[in-house]
Amino acid sequence: MASLHLNFPSSSTQPLVFSPLLSNFRTSSFNLRLFTHPAIPFRFHHSNHRRGSLHLISAAFSAANQTEIAGTDSRDSEKKPLLEVKDLTAVIAESKQEILKGVNLVVHEGEIHAVMGKNGSGKSTFSKVLVGHPDYEVTGGSVVFKGENLLDMEPEERSLSGLFMSFQSPVEIPGVNNIDFLNMAYNARRRKLGLPELGPIEFYAYLFPKLELVNMKSDFLNRNVNEGFSGGERKRNEILQLAVLGADMAILDEIDSGLDIDALKDVAKAVNGILTPKNSVLMITHYLRLLEFIQPTYIHIMEGGRIVKTGDISIAKTLEKEGYKAISPS
Ligand SMILES: Nc1ncnc2c1ncn2[C@@H]1O[C@H](COP(=O)(O)OP(=O)(O)OP(=O)(O)O)[C@@H](O)[C@H]1O
After folding, report:
1. Using CA atoms, how far apart are residues 269 and 294, in angstroms rounded to an integer?
2. What residue owns the CA closest to ligand 1's atom 26?
3. Where is the ABC transporter domain (predicted)?
């Protein structure tokens, strides 16, 4: 198994997060296995000193009403379910405070689902629980991904089985440049698939159209991952990773936050460009504007750790005009 040993400065004020995709991982525990990108499993050793080390051990990617299961209707009977979440409950690992209080959701191949909801309703927690974030403990319910019990899988297995997550706040990886990072991750995926690795020149030929897809300048390839990137540039970089690595299911947490209107269009175009009838997107957003560019099959409203309503784009239009009071009594 390929292993890359990296040194990086650590900061006492910032949470240490070593995946562009896994933010807000508080890494005070030692030797924590982090799986940044569902595609990119890392082993992390942190000594709480000014320097830490990161071992990239492998990277791969094969990569309503609450009583009803949201996202299911008669039209879905012929479509293959990709993700089936039933009565999912989860608590914060440290405090045992319950955040998810029975989430039900079915996502079929080729569908785009948007999750909306007031601040603090549990949207990000839901997505982090899906990728196996160690801050949370699942206390009940089930999650089946591509026919397999997702909750039985380690975070890296989830990534290997094709789950990708773009976190709300993409993190920096000091000392690792973007193109090397992407190349390593992509090659790991190829190894997993039994394909020969691509050398730097071949990889660049593969990467170049993806850069165009996200309308990103090649200068960003030689910079360290997300280091000094603006908020919008980080989001664009996340989508570049998704475009390079691919996913059966991409979870995009507020991918529109911090984007100017041109960047929003570029990101939406890139997401639309990677959609196939076989993969799906679960996106968390507060705004209609994203949904006008990436048109969802369903919109779900989360409240108090549950999906309390499911519908089409009209829900988002109502929200935009009237706010949450129009669809929720509380
Ligand atoms: N690790 C944690 N420690 C303490 N509280 C947490 C933790 N994770 C989530 N919470 C709390 O759980 C609730 C749900 O948080 P979550 O981030 O899932 O909300 P959200 O719907 O994504 O909100 P927003 O729209 O503001 O991003 C919030 O009250 C939050 O403070």
Report:
1. 8
2. 119
3. 83-329
pLDDT score recorded for residue 118: 95
SS3 179: helix
> How many CB atoms are located within 10 Å of the residue 137 CB?
13
What atom of ligand 1 comes closest to residue 284's alpha carbon? 22
* The pLDDT value given to residue 329: 57
Edge-first strand listing for the sheet containing 51-56: 4-9, 51-56, 40-45, 32-37
Ligand 1 contact via 23 beta carbon (within 6 Å): no
Residue 123 Cα to ligand 1 middle (Å)? 8
Model pTM?
A: 0.78
Query: 324 or 100: which carries more pLDDT confidence?
Result: 100
Q: Is the pLDDT of residue 49 over 80?
A: no
Chain position carrying tokens 């390079």: 244
What's the CATH code of the domain at 256? 3.40.50.300
Taking the C-alpha atoms of residue 257 and residue 61, their distance in angstroms, rounded to an integer, is 26
Is the C-alpha dihedral spanning 255, 19, 81, 193 positive or negative?
A: positive
In a domain, 42, yes or no: no
DSSP notation for 288-328: HHHHHHS--SEEEEEETTEEEEEE-HHHHHHHHHH-GGGT-
- Residue 117 resides in a domain: yes
In a domain, 39, yes or no: no
Residue 92 CB–ligand 1 contact under 6 Å: yes
122 pocket-lining for ligand 1 (C-beta < 6 Å): yes
Distance 122 CA to ligand 1 centre (A): 6
Q: What are the Cα distances from residue 242, in Å, to 1, 159, 282?
A: 23, 12, 13
Closest atom of ligand 1 to CA, residue 254: 27
Considering the domain boundaries, does residue 13 fall inside one? no
What's the structural domain count of the chain? Answer: 1
Q: Measured between alpha carbons, how far is 166 from 19 in angstroms, rounded to an integer?
A: 10
